[in-house]
Amino acid sequence: MSRNGDTPYQAARVPADEAARLAALRRYHILDTAGEQVFDDLALLASTICATPIGVISLVDEERQWFKARVGLNASETTRDVAFCAHTILHSDVFIVPDATHDPRFAGNPLVTGDPRVRFYAGAPLETSDGFRLGALCAIDHAPRQLRPEQVEALRALARQVVLALELRRAGLEARRTEHTRREEEARYRELVENASDAIYTFDLEGRITAFNAAAERLTGHSRAAALTMTVDELLGPGSLAQARARLATADTPGRALARSTLHERDFVTKTGSRVRLEVRSQLVMRDGAAAAVLEIARDMTARNEAEALRAHLAAIVESSNDAIIGETIDGVINSWNDGAERLFGYRADEIVGQPISILIPAGHTTPVLEKLKRGEEVVQYETVRRHRTGTLVDVSVTASPMRDAAGRLSGASVIARDIRERLALERQRRDFLAMLTHDIKNPVGNMSGYLEVLSWRQDLDPKTRDVVTRMESSVETIRALVTNYLDLSKIEAGFLTLTKHPLDLNAVLARVTEQYEVEAGRRQITLEARLNTNLPTIEGDPVALERVFANLVSNAVKFTPAAGRVTLASHCDTNTVAVMVSDTGPGITRDEQPSLFQPYRQTATGRAQVGTGMGLFIAKSVVEAHGGTVGVSSEIGSGTTFTVTLPVVTHPGAAD
Q1: In whole angstroms, what is the distance from residue 432 CA to residue 110 CA?
Q2: Which residues of 324-342 are buried (b: 16+ CB within 10 A; e: fewer)?
Q3: 478, 512: one domain
Q4: What's the Cα-to-Cα distance from 522 to each of 369, 452, 554, 567, 585, rounded to whole Å?
Q5: Strand 334-337 versus strand 410-419 pairing type
Q6: Domain-located, residue 315
Q7: Angstrom distance (rounded) from CA 356 to CA 340
Q8: pLDDT tens digits for 287-301?
């Protein structure tokens, strides 16, 4: 029971079949549509025949009643709880309320106590052929009254006409939708045929060409317009129609639009005289149970044969490769395995295809390869170890490329693994030999340096001899640096670089380096300046290794700065790092050369590192990174160069490394 002020009214109960009723209403697609003359006329007839000022066609929705047509009423809808028509759909015949003010169901209804002041109501249910009452055709008056029997019967008849109009409207909509769908399907079919990569053409039973797509034009060399004036014998060669009839003579045709197809191959000469081999599928087109035309789809076998030959060639390359070539899904499941993979890892293809790629990864060993491939990234020459079937570890270089399907989606990966055990063994032999050689050279060089130093102390040397001694000392020092660099490089490449770290006053290291090169800078007429922050925090490092890093940077700066130039060694700090800058006013380094400065054995074309082997900066970078720091360079041609070393500040002074 609902209440309007102090007077109650009764909302209609919901029909038992409400869900199905609403579904039936929606299949008419009529709610919230514009007015239509046929429904307006029926509402007017109901008002006229019943002699009421208001006539309405109401459709009862889930939460409202909506008026498809209305006479004498401004509102287009009301809520369902106040709708008289919501009561009507609960009845199979005309529902009449002679005086709503005396009916306890409606006396307090807002449509009675307010506009449109309903007193009399008569509604005929709009019942579909399958028994669903969608709403009502109703007549409404502002005064109490009754209907004569003939008026009641007329209201019933008009309600049936409303339902008929709804059905006709629905049928029209469905017919239009069907026609639209048919046209869309025809358009899609035409587009499919026109854009097909295979040649598609049809000819009638007399052999006249009746359809010819773009691919057929490309294949034959004949334009569509020309082909439509030709017979199939003229297009494909004499006897083509007879052969098609013979092939299709026994086709199973009754009741089918397209008969059973036949597949055959034929040679064809194009308009330009080229001979191609075609694969042709022929089908009879049936109309009204009788053969009407022939549809043929022709494919140039040349491209396919070439593709098959290429695939066979590539497969032969894969199978004959000494490298392991492995295919895997995006989830890391092995789906192809060549002979090279069998030789490298010991598994036969029938044993490992279908297994996860992780079967080759040693326990506890992480690899970035699969995750990078899932992101669509390539992995190039990643050196790692993999597990042989016997459990032994194999040193390999892995290159992996993501594979994509025709839609561009990641579908898997191709992995090439190369055995690098022999190369690594040779590299170890080379490092060992260099280490031995440089170690054997170190002692004689030290002796030579000592002899020259003693000789330089003599006061009786003439200027020419003293100059020779000085030059010899410089050469010996160069040899000593080379020997030291070779030893360090061997340690770095072997992974044996060891540092003795402890809390360190970096300014003391920098001061020693400055003092070490003051004489050389003065000899070259270069100003060597130290601008050191006296409040540097403590860092943790190996003083000998770091001194050699900064000595290398200062030595290079002095070496490549012209006379009257300047070399500056500066330090500063922030919360977490200490930075040291070594700047010079030398010729500078091009931007293209800067990225390769820190690679071993690299020298620039602009002068820097032309003397020596190009190992110093690589060693410096390795030492700094072993301290948790970084090395960077900034330079412009003609404006000098600055190398910047950053090192972390000690968070707990005195902590052991």
Answers
A1: 104
A2: bbbbbeeebebebbbbbbb
A3: no
A4: 54, 22, 14, 11, 15
A5: unpaired
A6: no
A7: 18
A8: 777 778 888 888 888
Alpha-carbon gap, residue 227 to 219, rounded angstroms: 12
Provide the number of structural domains found in the chain: 5
Residue 311 lies in a domain: no
Q: Residue 325 and residue 337: Cα distance in Å, rounded?
A: 6
Q: Angle at the Cα of 564 (from 562 to 565), degrees rounded to 5?
A: 60
Q: Cα angle at 146 between 98 and 90, to 5 degrees?
A: 50
Co-location of 399 and 433 in the same domain = no
Using 50, 70 and 90 to split pLDDT, how confident is the model at 585? very high
What length does the chain have? 657
Quick one: tokens of 350? 């029938």
Interhelix angle 506-523/543-559, nearest 10 degrees? 30
| Pairwise CA distance, residues 323 & 396, whole Å | 10
Buried b (16+ CB within 10 A) or exposed e, 521-560: beebebebebebeeebbebbbbbebbbbbbbbbbbbbbbb
CA distances from 247 to 242, 286, 287, 327 (A): 9, 16, 19, 44
At 187-246, the pLDDT tens digits run 777 777 777 788 888 899 888 999 888 888 988 899 999 999 999 899 888 888 888 888
Give domain status of residue 332, yes or no: yes
Asked if 159 and 39 sit in the same domain, the reply is yes
Rounded-to-integer distance, Cα 419 and Cα 340, Å: 10
Distance CA 22, CA 61 (A): 7
- Helix, strand, coil percent content, the chain, rounded in steps of 5: 40, 25, 30
Helix axes 463-494, 421-457, angle to 10 degrees: 150
Domain that holds residue 623: 502-648
Residues 6+ apart with CB under 8 A from 465: none
Looking at the structure, tell me whether residues 246 and 386 fall in a common domain: no
Q: What is the pLDDT of residues 38-90, one digit of tens each?
A: 999 999 999 999 999 999 999 999 999 999 999 999 999 999 999 999 999 99
* Rg value, the chain, Cα: 48
Q: Is the pLDDT of residue 22 over 50?
A: yes
Q: What percent of the chain has pLDDT over 70?
A: 85
Chain position carrying tokens 């069998």: 342
C-alpha 101/C-alpha 119 separation (Å) is 7
403 phi/psi in degrees, rounded to 5: -115, 145
Q: Is residue 312 part of a domain?
A: no
Tokens of 258: 């397209």
- For the chain, the farthest-separated pair of C-alpha atoms sits apart, in whole angstroms, at 152
Task: Output the pTM of the full model.
Answer: 0.37
Assign residue 477 the CATH number of its domain: 1.10.287
* Tokens encoding 456: 């330089």
CA-nearest of 282, 284, 280, 281 to 255 is 284
